[in-house]
Write a structure and sequence with these properties.
It is a single chain. This protein is mainly β. Helix content is 0%, strand content 48%. Strand 5 and strand 6 form a beta hairpin. It is globular and about 40 Å long.
Length: 127
Amino acid sequence: QVQLVESGGGLVQAGGSLRLSCAASGRTFSTYAMGWFRQAPGKEREFVAAISWSGGSTYYADSVKGRFTISRDNAKNTVYLGMNSLKPEDTAVYYCAAERSRAAAASMTSTTDFHSWGQGTQVTVSS
């Protein structure tokens, strides 16, 4: 399994921006589909965005479409989540996830689609 470490979380005002990073260990990162999920207090973990192994397809939750961008740099073993126009309801712990798969990003939207997870990074958006 790949090891994942997220970074880039923090406190930001509503309307602001953040970029999360997820660094993966190993030499086979380019064979993994990657996803971002988030979990707010008292709520279930929910899908945010996914990107296919090649970066050729991406998919977003409706709640973040047009505001968030997922991307990857296979040379750096890193996946990113750019977040713009942040809202207080985006406040959550954000988790990076990986699964060795050639599936399209739209097929990787459930927590059960991924078996490797990072420890999470807190994003807090103040109003």
